[in-house]
Amino acid sequence: LASPSVRDVIQDSDGLIWVATNNGVQKYDGLKWETFKNIPGKSTSIQSINAWALEEDAERNIWVANERGVS
To answer: Among the four 4, 17, 63, 66, which has the fewest Cβ within 10 Å?
Structure first.
């Protein structure tokens, strides 16, 4: 994991595991991990690496709550 400090874990409707940490969000597909972090200047990146909570909406989007709001 990107950090030993896990704040939230969800399994989405496709069966992927999402983990919110204080060092970004990670997605696990059963074989490999992918890490999502804030990339300054990139509007599609998460707002902050300090992720608090995760939620999947009805359209299968994953939302990340952090101190700056929701990504």
So the answer is: 4
Type of residue found at 37: K
Rounded to whole angstroms, the Cα distance separating 39 from 71 reads 13
| Phi/psi of residue 53, nearest 5 degrees | -150, 160
Asked if residues 64 and 57 have their Cβ atoms less than 8 Å apart, the reply is: no
**pTM score, whole prediction:** 0.90
Tell me the pairing of strands 24-28 and 6-11. unpaired
Q: How far is CA 57 from the centre of its chain?
A: 14
